[in-house]
Amino acid sequence: MVLIKDFISYLREKGVSNNTIVAYTNDLNAFCQDLNISLDDYITSTDVRKWVDSMLNPTDIKPLSVPTINRRINSLRSYYSWATLNGKLQHDPMKNIKELKSADEESEKIMWLTEDEFEDLLQIMRKKPIKSRAVDPEEKYRRDRAIIFILTYAGLRVEELSNLKLTDIDIEMKRIRIVGKGIKVRTIPISNILLAEIKDWLEYRNEMSKVKENVSASTFVFYSQRSPKFSVRGIQTMIEGYSLPNKKLTPHMFRHTFCKWMLKATNNDIEKVRRLAGHSNIATTSRYLKDSYSDLADAVEAMPKF
């Protein structure tokens, strides 16, 4: 497994997030285990196609989803591209392997919040009971509310939010500096609505830093009960706890919401939204142009009436 270790070192040098590295590692290990091979063995495109087919048509388990299979394909493509370019292997079996396409050309179901659902969420947050006596209800509410607003009105990925530092927020210039995937830096303007929420949290956080050691020692915008940094998993668990009756919440759902709302606010200016969201490919942004059923229903209802 020397090649995997070298590949992981390469990914870390590129600034790839830990979560992405774990996904790559799991996908490569699954490939090796399923075919009973090693990554330095001679692999053909036929081997890869048989593996893809086994995931689509397994004999004793549920088939994997198209997005999961495509992620595994891309993990292999990245690995073999690196290995051949760096002289680790002579043959790239992924050259003629293409991603799968779902029936509606959209392999990932994009979920976002409507304005009414966002308002319902804020009400749920105000009334959510605190299960632990060690947690200050006001502190938790202020922190969680600030997180929800930043995710929704700035479109941060959960890793970007967890890593957000106090020095990344410029109140005077009304902007947030974000270090995204591949150490790509982007700057997002802070709207007046978001500015009020951020100011409120930072003022409260400053008061907490006077009485809590983990806060005073922290350089991060958000902290947990005992740690100076709110972890990705901690944020995910917190958000899931506020799930709506008919919709399970995830951090990425708020990023979807940001993109969807921004397209509407900019009259479908894809390039503006792409830059704000930090998408490398505009095709990623264009997925949000697909209307929801309620959007289509509103459009039909708006037709002339006689």
Architecture overview:
- With 306 residues, the protein is mainly alpha-helical.
- It folds into two domains: 2-85, DNA polymerase, domain 1 (Orthogonal Bundle); 115-296, Intergrase catalytic core (hpI Integrase, Chain A, Orthogonal Bundle), CATH 1.10.443.10.
- It contains 14 helices and three strands.
- Helix 2 packs across helix 4 (66-85).
- The longest helix is centred in the first third of the chain and has 20 residues, at 66-85.
- The chain is globular.
Describe what is shown at a glance.
The chain has 306 residues and is mostly helical. The protein contains 14 helices and 3 strands. 23% of the residues are buried.
Keywords, separated by commas or semicolons:
about 55% helix, hpI Integrase, Chain A, mainly alpha, three-stranded antiparallel beta sheet, globular, DNA polymerase, domain 1, about 300 residues, 2 domains, 14 helices, 3 strands
Topology of this structure?
Layout (H helix, E strand, L loop, with lengths): L1 H13 L3 H18 L9 H12 L9 H20 L29 H13 L9 H18 L3 H5 L6 E2 L4 E5 L5 E5 L2 H18 L3 H4 L15 H9 L10 H15 L4 H8 L4 H5 L6 H9 L5
Antiparallel strand pairs: 1-2, 2-3
Instruction: Specify the CATH class of the largest domain.
Output: Mainly Alpha
CATH topology of the largest domain: hpI Integrase, Chain A
Rg of Cα set: 22 Å
Could you state the order of secondary-structure elements as H and E? HHHHHHHEEEHHHHHHH
Count of DSSP helices?
14
How much β-strand is present in the residues? under 5%
| Morphology | globular
Number of DSSP E strands: 3
Helix content: 40-55%
Please state the average pLDDT score: 87
- CATH homologous superfamily of the largest domain - what is it? Intergrase catalytic core
